[in-house]
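Hey,
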Amino acid sequence: MAVEPSKTLDRVLVLEMVRVTEAAAIAASGLIGRGDEKAADAAAVEAMRAAFNDLDFDGTVVIGEGERDEAPMLYIGEKVGRGTGPRIDIALDPLEGTTITAKSGPNALAVLAIAEEGGLLNAPDVYMEKLAIGPGYARGLVGLDRTPTENVQALAKAKGVDSHEIIACVLDRPRHDKLIAELRQIGCGIMLIPDGDVAGVIAVTDPETTIDIYLGSGGAPEGVLAAAALACVGGQFQGRLLFRNEDERARARKWGVTDLDRVYQLEDLVKGDAIFAATGVTDGSLLQGVKRRPGCVSTESVVMRASSGTVRWVRGEHRKRKA
């Protein structure tokens, strides 16, 4: 589906968003392997917020660290930027993979997406059932109203292979035990990941990862972030909010969600033009992590835009200024 270029999201913002994720990743990288998830997350949050506030735009965080009374910075509804220039909505995760970072595991990212005001679903901080495949397939090939077996078999048929040649990415959680058992029953390969499902969803768009489909549940905010990336590079995504109690249902209603059983399509989560940016914190399937050497810090980032379909890979060397 063609996306018209936004007059609000100019080309300058594309590289500015990379600078923001770079700042968060570099800050978090100083705590890789230190075993302190909260400290790593706080460092990324503070660096990302400071970077935003150097920019000439009027930004509103629609997906952030939580609601205002639960998150001291980058909470949902917080205003960032200098308050001048274009009005944009922001979805962010300053450190996607706090546990990964604390344990020095793979695929930790600093990630964000921006769109025009009203362009991103204001997803409540609950779980979301997710299904994603890469580009090049007929619309509606897979769906959340079908079983995992049906989805894998449909994808295998479209690829012209048997089910045992399909690789699914699934978060390694006890709640996925039945899903994993069903996939293995039909011979489907499974790549279990400990955390970081934004990278897991995006992996379906890159043949080099060998991942064909993403299945399972994870955070709804991360679902919107991943959908923004797929909106830029192609692919299909569906999400359905999952609620464990009445408190979570009330939270969803607070943010304007009225149909609690709705299956969200990609275009429901990300409307119109969007920019997605991510910088690696630790090495992973999508990006290399931050590397430190005397006098220099190097980063690897990716930035995408929906209207152009452009994907840019950005390697940065951040040298310490001599006094």
